[in-house]
Amino acid sequence: MPTQDGFTLIELVAVIVLLGIIAAVAYPRFTGVGAYAGSAATAQALSGIRFAQEQALSRGLHARFRYQGRHYAVEYDTGPGFSAVPGRSRWTLPGNARFAANGTVTFDGLGRPDAGDCGGGNPIPLDPGEDLQVECETGFAHVP
């Protein structure tokens, strides 16, 4: 009785379909597009805001989170104006994420944001991603 080696057409099609499904799920994660980039941008921007608040608290000076386009910076008040925090103080959002508007959030020496930089009426919009909000009383940054 002769034996046949190889795969059937059904087995080959099933493998190709499975590889296609895996590629469709994994590709956005490795390239930084889609929902993953939005989540990463949201987390990174929240970290930047919290870093600015921490700088204000630790130095007892005004500090600000300045955002524009794909970039944001953390700066503190040196007297004549704001200057960069020593070390790395400018970052770029991952993937194609960007801030949908430009602006600043300034914290006082107690970590509270300036009145115009907080509350539900003044969100920090991310594209793609979620809007961020800074609480007026505590300076806590979060996704509403």
Word description of this protein:
- The chain has 144 residues and is α+β, with helices and mostly antiparallel strands.
- It has one domain (35-142): 3-Layer(bab) Sandwich (minor pseudopilin epsh fold).
- It has helices at residues 9-31, 35-59; strands at 63-68, 71-77, 82-84, 90-92, 98-99, 103-107, 126-127, 133-134, 141-142.
- The strands form 3 sheets. Strands 1, 2, 3, 4 and 6 form a 5-stranded antiparallel β-sheet that branches. A two-stranded antiparallel ribbon has the order 5-7. Strands 8-9 form a two-stranded antiparallel ribbon.
- A hairpin with a 6-residue loop joins strand 8 and strand 9.
- The longest helix has 25 residues, at 35-59.
- It is elongated and about 90 Å long.
- The model has no long low-confidence stretch (mean pLDDT 86).
Summarize it:
By secondary structure, this protein is an alpha+beta fold. The chain is built from two helices and nine strands.
Secondary structure elements and their pairing?
Layout: H1 9-31, H2 35-59, E1 63-68, E2 71-77, E3 82-84, E4 90-92, E5 98-99, E6 103-107, E7 126-127, E8 133-134, E9 141-142
Mean pLDDT: 86
Order of helices and strands: HHEEEEEEEEE
CATH architecture: 3-Layer(bab) Sandwich
- Estimated share of beta-strand residues: 15-25%
How many strand segments?
Answer: 9
Overall form = elongated
Q: How many domains make up the coordinates?
A: 1
CATH class: Alpha Beta
The level of helicity is 25-40%
CATH-assigned fold name = minor pseudopilin epsh fold
Quick one: biggest sheet?
A: 5 strands, antiparallel
Please mark out the parts with pLDDT under 50 across 5 or more consecutive residues, or reply none: none
